[in-house]
Write a structure and sequence with these properties.
Elements (H helix, E strand, L loop, with lengths): L3 E7 L2 H15 L5 E7 L5 H10 L5 E2 L9 H19 L3 E5 L3 H13 L2 E5 L14 H11 L2 E4 L2 H9 L7 E3 L3 H13 L7 H9 L5 E6 L8 H16 L3 E6 L4 H11 L5 E4 L4 H10 L2 E4 L3 H9 L3 E3 L7 H5 L3 E3 L4 H13 L1 H7 L11 H11 L1 H4 L2
Parallel strand pairs: 1-2, 1-4, 2-3, 4-5, 5-6, 6-7, 8-9, 8-11, 9-10, 11-12, 12-13
This protein binds uridine-diphosphate-N-acetylglucosamine (UD1) and uridine-5'-diphosphate.
């Protein structure tokens, strides 16, 4: 029997975290699949951190990241650099993830090549093309050319059905981020877990205080949004000397500049470099509250029972908002301060937002995806 040829393509930190367990799952089925990994390296350092933790060596590294890159050049570079990879390897199936420029451009390139496109984390929508920008457009374009949609939840499947996607081609799997999270939680809690970054955190962070963990990077928040966010964090730090804000700052220069300009020197705000995934998971587990504009963290935090204030006006992940562990606060300074202050001062409000639940999966998403390709693909793929 000829082995099915799989190509898994990703480019940024969150895609790598969410695709790493899928790479492992395909590699566990070496008799059925030939699996290769291609990274666009839309991110560099932040991607390499993930590859190193999950011990993945890419077969193709397009090495495309440029400092301060723009969307036009990045999109064009991904398209043209993928052509020889697709022509040389001739995959049967190309797996893409989520909603980045890598996802969208890889889907287009794969469509041109004639291979089948499998979209992991399919069907998320805010129904607002400008928010998140350009991610909502990226996932809509990807959905148009996708052959198999691996949707994380019932809601994401329904979104695709409303767009007239064929029901047989939509498979609910849960989100692969929970596979990655459970693997990592297990690792960081094992008795012989040793990690340089965790040792650094133990020195830098005052864990006797309540830990507020912050991340942010969304393009639509660049400029005024980030200034508001920084002012809110400064006010929170000054009002609450019993809290410690820890902020691993994304490497995008549009984030680095305002954050370091506005928040350096505040004694209970610790600005640090992006953390590798295990150290970040370790820190999420230790945190009292998470304030973020991240997509992935909205999915991880409910599984850890951590409340999340989301600095966005829209979310494509309504499940945890509906169950009350995630609250949208936008980038209005007063709103961020008010909602964080409520959680700091009001035990009842805190309890309500910090129950543990798993709306995004049970850690078996990758098995479901691989089993589907093994068993059913020939019946359903058009
Ligand atoms: C990208 C994705 C976004 C995703 C986010 C996850 C797009 C358009 N954006 O946003 O959907 O949510 O990643 O973090 O696809 N940089 C480094 N080293 C790194 C990573 C980034 O120096 O390892 C700097 C570079 O100057 C780079 C810049 O950050 O040019 C922007 O990177 P880019 O991938 O274009 O945008 P992000 O804001 O990271
Ligand atoms: N993360 C990490 N180190 C950090 C900050 C975040 O490993 O310093 C992880 C986080 O746990 C989540 C993912 O990175 O799995 C989210 O990435 P990001 O917020 O950059 O992208 P998004 O999810 O918004 O696309």
């Amino acid at each position: 029997m000829n082995k099915k040829k799989i190509l898994i393509v990703f480019g940024t930190r969150p895609e790598a975290i969410k695709m790493a367990p899928l790479v492992k799952e395909f590699q566990n089925n070496i008799n059925i699949f030939e699996t290769k990994v291609c990274i666009t390296a839309q991110h560099r350092e932040m991607l390499d951190q993930v590859l190193s933790f999950f011990e993945i060596t890419p077969d193709f590294d397009l090495d495309l990241m440029k400092p301060g890159q723009n969307l036009y050049d990045l999109t064009a570079a991904i398209l043209s650099n993928l052509k020889p990879v697709l022509e040389e390897y001739k995959p049967d199936f190309v797996f893409v993830h989520g909603d980045t420029t890598t996802t969208m451009a890889t889907s287009l390139a794969t469509f041109y090549s004639g291979a089948k496109i499998c979209h992991v984390e399919a069907g998320l929508r805010t129904f607002n093309m400008q928010s998140p920008f350009p991610e909502e457009m990226n996932r809509c374009v990807t959905s148009i050319v996708t052959n198999l949609h691996f949707a994380p939840t019932k809601t994401s499947k329904e979104n695709l059905i409303k767009e007239n996607k064929t029901e047989n081609c939509i498979i609910i799997t849960g989100n692969t981020v929970i596979d990655a999270l459970l693997y990592s939680v297990n690792k960081v809690n094992s008795p012989n877990f040793e990690d340089e970054e965790v040792n650094m955190l133990k020195h830098v962070v005052d864990f006797d205080k309540r830990l507020i963990l912050v991340t942010g990077h969304r393009r639509e928040n660049h400029g005024k949004g980030f200034i508001n966010i920084c002012e809110a964090l400064k006010e929170l730090a000054i009002k609450n000397p019993n809290c410690e804000i820890v902020y691993p700052v994304h490497l995008n220069p549009n984030v680095q500049k305002p954050v370091y300009d506005l928040l350096s020197g505040v004694s209970n705000i610790k600005l640090i470099s992006p953390l590798s995934y295990p150290a970040f998971v370790w820190l999420m587990e230790k945190s009292f509250l998470i304030i973020t504009d991240s997509g992935g963290i909205q999915e991880e935090a409910p599984s850890l029972g951590k409340p999340v204030l989301v600095m966005r006006n829209t979310t494509e992940r309504p499940e945890a908002v509906e169950t009350g562990t995630v609250l949208l606060v936008g980038t209005d300074k007063q709103k961020i301060v008010k909602e964080a202050q409520t959680l700091i001062n009001n035990e009842e409000a805190y309890k309500k937002m910090s129950h543990l639940h798993n709306p995004y999966g049970d850690g078996t998403a990758c098995k479901k995806i691989v089993n589907y390709i093994k068993e059913k693909e020939t019946i359903f793929v058009k």
